[in-house]
Amino acid sequence: MTEFDPTQLLQEALDRKAGGFVELRYHKKRSRALAVEKGRVETAQVTEHTGVGVRVLVDGTWGFASTDRVERASIETAVDQARAAARSSARARTERTEELPRTALARGRFESAGVRELADKPLAETLELVLKMEEEARGASAAIQSASAAYSEVFEEKGIVTSDGARAWTRLVRPEFRVSAVARKDGEIQRGSESVGATGGWDCLFRAHGPEALAERAAARAVDLLSAGYPEGGRTKVLLSPSLVGLLTHEAVGHTVEADFVRSGSIAAGKLGHRVASERVTLCDSGRSEFHDGAGGSLSVDDEGVPTGNTVIIQDGVLVSYLHDRESAARFGVAPTGNARAWEYDDAPLIRMRNTYIAPGDAELEELIASMEDGYLLDGAANGQADANGEFMFGTREAYRIVKGKKGPLLRGVNISGQAFDVLRSVDRVGREFRWDLGSGHCGKGQPAKVDAGGPWLSCAVVLGGRRA
User: Fold this and answer.
1) Nearest residue to 163 (alpha-carbon basis) of 74, 49, 51, 82
2) What CA–CA distance (Å, rounded) separates 52 from 42?
3) Which contiguous run of DSSP H or E holds residue 53?
4) DSSP 3-state assignment of 67?
5) pLDDT digits (tens, 9 = 90+) for 350-382
6) Where exactly are the structural domains of the chain?
């Protein structure tokens, strides 16, 4: 993989166009994707998107421009275009950002593990694995009607230079693998799927389960769901798995504490210093992969050149911080948290999460099950939605009734709903085991972003929906 450090070129352009605040961001994104369905190769593609994004702050107003020509003259022209855009829009601005907060900005080179490993791995070798996993899932049972498997990897290189001191070069890779199977019996159809995503090499991607185990689990779930019963609905005690804790943490809590949403009136507005969860809950968002390597949203430097540390959002049940870029930090009078992220070079940075999680406690899963008199164990995040008030509804992939500390058979058609902070207030036990479990797919907020989320098993209360058989 050819190494190119663009910071010298960006610095030269910056020096020639000095004046006011200027931010230059080189971004090269190269993607490889493979997909197989019913034994056929449906996708085998390589794409690349490279250019430079330019932001300036003029008269308290942002201006943005970009160029796909990575050369000094084109970058300098983009600076002029961004300044012209800022001046043009400044006249209509009623609110201005006069100065960005001073903060320690990143300087140096930052590379994640796995970049060279995956760049050197032949695509044909990876395709062989994808074909084999689809075949194994499809042949796992006579009830399996079809299966699919897919693998993708995104290599990203960035150079970020700002007029107030940032000069950073970063490189990382994010691989993903997914497999699904469709089972049919007596006219009824059920689907099982497994997906993993990471930042790093294959050791990170397949840390918890190898590809063979993922194919086996997807097929087994599809078949087992054909004969599964239904739960009783209503408010009930549950054990939420790390994947569901991650989904709740990201979708129903994390978005409400992004400072731009806070300023728009999310439920977290005005709640700093207030108790919003059980004292057993500490919730964080980190650019690092805490507890073990490979979290899918990991990055060393955000797209404003701010180092990404670990931001504690809820400390022992009390809301203590929002998530900020440099502009929102200036408005709130705090330091930026390193949450400014842009999907492509021609996107302006937005406030986005990275790796969001609830910190682990000290209870073993077996202990949590044994101590539950009547409730459900829920595992596997499916689809769902949440809003700025923290109201959510999520589907689950697996559910089991627990009665007097004993886990019953698999159930289907189970979804959960509620208000996220009410759920967090109800937490009475926190598990020891921690997993990142939401690294595949993308978060959407005007533009995509790679994120991850997770946590331990949580004992709490939710509204459970289902139906009687």
Assistant:
1) 82
2) 33
3) strand 40-58
4) strand
5) 999 999 999 999 999 999 999 999 999 999 988
6) 7-225, 234-465
Q: Which residues pair with 110 in a beta bridge?
A: 170
pLDDT band for position 257 (cuts 50, 70, 90): very high
**Can you give the pLDDT at residue 5?**
84
Q: Which residues pair with 464 in a beta bridge?
A: 234, 416
CATH superfamily of 7-225: PmbA/TldD superfamily (3.30.2290.10)
**Alpha-carbon distance 462 to 235, whole Å?**
6
User: Is residue 354 within 8 Å of residue 298, measured between CB atoms?
Assistant: yes
Query: Are residues 468 and 230 in contact, defined by beta-carbon separation less than 8 angstroms?
Result: yes
Give the confidence band of 95 by pLDDT, cuts at 50, 70, 90. Answer: confident
**If we measure between CA atoms, which residue out of 456, 444, 440 comes closest to residue 379?**
456
Q: What is the pTM of this model?
A: 0.95
Let me know the angle formed at the C-alpha of 380 by 374 and 383, rounded to the nearest 5 degrees.
110
Cβ partners under 8 Å of residue 430, min gap 6: 280, 281, 358, 359, 360, 361, 362, 363, 456, 457, 458, 459
pLDDT at residue 469 is higher than 90: no
Tell me: the pLDDT tens digits for 208-226?
999 999 999 999 999 999 9
Can you say whether the dihedral through the CA atoms of 217, 218, 224, 229 is positive or negative?
positive
Task: Report the alpha-carbon distance of residue 223 to residue 188 in Å, rounded.
Answer: 11
Which residue(s) pair with 112 in the sheet?
none
Task: Enter the tokens of residue 354.
Answer: 């990275």
Please measure the distance between the N-terminal and C-terminal CA atoms of the chain and give it in whole angstroms.
56
